[in-house]
Amino acid sequence: IQWELPGGEQIVRGIDLTVAAGKLTVITGPNGGGKTSLAKLIAGLERPTGGRILLDGEDITELTITERARKGIAYAFQQPVRFKGIQVLDLLRLAAHDEKLSAADACVYLSEVGLCARDYINREVNASLSGGELKRIEIATVLARASRLSVFDEPEAGIDLWSFQNLIQVFERMREKTKGSIVIISHQERILNIADRIVVIADGRITKTGRKEEILP
């Protein structure tokens, strides 16, 4: 696929990438190389100016982010979105597509990301939550969705060391429990180390791809 800005600047330059089912793929590379742009193209936040995007063989290039979400694509923002007036339990019910999701079941997802459920289940998803708390709650919503493809844009951004160590375990459990695919945009070596496949992107192109043993020095 390709993507260029209205002024003609090319951000993504002919990337040809297949994400294997049930695997954890980490996309890495220098800042400004096109990693986040590619993630946004996959999620539907941006539309490519050339090429196609397929989900299990179905062309989803023209689908909106909402339509892609219904097809099973989840996207976790680098900077999580706040939802004034919505409680954490409500957000998890929306993610799970289950209005009757019990507080007990919702708490399981919060526990998975290292949050004490009773302290958060009735909290409003607003500015009273720190960036790290919002990040973990957003990841909990992705877990609740059990998506065909989950895309995480620098999930380690804005969280403390303990949370980061817990985050690694969350991704490892996701890979074990879900049949869906996981794509993570990250520079972090510990995240690269748990990848089934690493894709290096620079200047809008894939420069290397392979198993971690082939990519990491």
Features:
217 residues, two-stranded antiparallel sheet, six-stranded mixed β-sheet, alpha/beta
Architecture overview:
This protein is of the alpha/beta class and 217 residues long. It is 36% helix and 22% strand. Strands 6-9-10-3-11-12 form a 6-stranded mixed sheet, sandwiched between helices. The chain starts with a strand and ends with a helix.
Major sheet size, sense and barrel closure: 6 strands, mixed
Q: Which strands sit side by side, in order, in the main sheet?
A: 6-9-10-3-11-12
Low-confidence stretches: none
Give the number of helices: 9
Oligomer status: single chain
Helicity range of the residues?
25-40%
The sequence of SSEs as H and E is EEEHEEHEEHHHEHEHEHEEH
Radius of gyration: 17 Å
Structural class: alpha/beta
The backbone outline, from C-alpha atoms, is: globular
Kindly estimate the percentage of residues that lie in beta strands according to DSSP: 15-25%
Number of strands: 12
End-to-end distance? 29 Å
The average pLDDT value, as a whole number, equals 86
